[in-house]
Amino acid sequence: MTVVVGGQPASAVRVRGRGLPGLSRTGGPWLVGGAVAALWAWAGLMREWTMRTGIDLGLYAQAVEHYSRGQWPWSPLKAQGDFNLLGDHFTPIVAVLGPVYRVWPHVETLIVAQAVLIGLAVTVVGRTAIRVFDHAGAGCAVAAAFGLSWGVTGAALFDFHEVAFALPLLAACLDRALAVRWRAAVLWSLPLLLVKEDSAFLIAGLAIACWTVGLRRLAIAAMAAAVAGFALVVGVVIPALSYSGTYTYWAVTGDARGPVSSPIGMLGNLWTALTSGSAPVTVLLAMACTGFLALRSPLAWVAVPSLLVRFTSARPEYWGPESHYNATLMVVVFVAALDGWRRHGSMLSGMPGRISARTAGATALVLALVIGWWTPLRTIIEPDAYRCGDRCSAAHEILARIPDGATVMADTFLVDQLVSRTRVHLVAENLLDSTGHPIEAEWIALDTSNRGTFPHESAGYWWGANAAQSSGYVPVWASTTGFILLRRNPAAAKAFLHMYGTVACAASTAEAELCTTPPGDDTYRTRTAWCGTVEPPHTVHRCPPGAYLKPYRP
Fold it and tell me: Where are its TM segments located (predicted)?
């Protein structure tokens, strides 16, 4: 059986390789891919330098560091003891970065690697577009549009994630489908199972696409591979490696009982995702960035199962166009749009074929830039994105005081800055890790400014007072921009409490002027304090925004 996607078999398409001067059919996509990789590497490195990255970059750096030594991907950020990240999410493909990290053991390695993987995907999409358009300039314009699309931008500007590996694999898979080599497409899709467990839904989508073009047996085989792979990973592999012996993310879909036992919960989540506007906006933006041509291709089915899983999740961050969750969606809609253009190019009748291709390529690039202006893409041209201001400088100063090889607790926005040279844990409530065990560390580094709700708003003084009084930590450095560094020193902590006593509590922030200030001594001073309690047995003191702590040096 001859299956045609795009009106004619790939063998019938003759590529002349014409286009803009200096762009060739072979070299053009590599040039665009390299430029996009350089752009996102530079933007990512600037984000890391200006303290705009966080815990996800730290988690993957710890995993790759252990991979580089031939070990399981242990993560001290998750637990005081051994916590295997493969028992959290199944992402073994990240291990390929181990040898590179061994040569250059820094978080910047991951940022550059992610940019290179995005660039490879751009190159594949560009080669596919040139084959479809029969025009190098138009194909390179589409490649650039893909590399600057809002979904790819969201991934490039959000730390590091395993999804970067999925982009070139999925692009190669769909390229083979567009060339009417569906069996090769299915084979290219199988390594996606090594990217993350939910990549199985992309393979399921490919199976649906195979079915719609009449390849029933191949569709059944692909669907069986997707179902079996997902079941094996979440039912056997992850529980075997998890500290809890279970797949802890079942509750993300449906309710806490899991997706199988709560179809009503899944439907409720879907209804909320739709009525809140988040899900419709995601779909609308995805289709709009390619002029809705993706809807004219059976390859659009590849995205459907993944979108349904996201929209039935109980976590709103999965529904919208934020972060890295839409990167693979961009691959699908761009390649599907190429197929849609080839199938229905007659809608541009009246123009010579080459002009139509140029128009399509230019339109794709304009749409990417226009839509990108309302998404993270615009942040790369903002001057503040590349300026290390007072807060950034203070953060670098406080972290420089921590010696290499030390054991540190830090908040979610500081851990990635420490992970390459210290053993760093994520500070959490009651100084317990994610498994409920106490964290032992010599240093605590915190950003006390209100940058979100994780672990707590204005958490620094909460932890500073609690740790200093209850756990033997004393403040050794602080800045007026909200950063504080504490060190564990039982003798100094005892002297500190003897000198200053328990931090005073005010009945309300309105009547509070200070927590404790011995006459004539302001080495330890806070303003406008609020106190609460947690059980057992710590007394918690939390200062709202505007309070500050001056250095105390034992």
Answer: 27-45, 110-130, 136-158, 199-215, 222-244, 264-286, 293-312, 324-343, 355-374
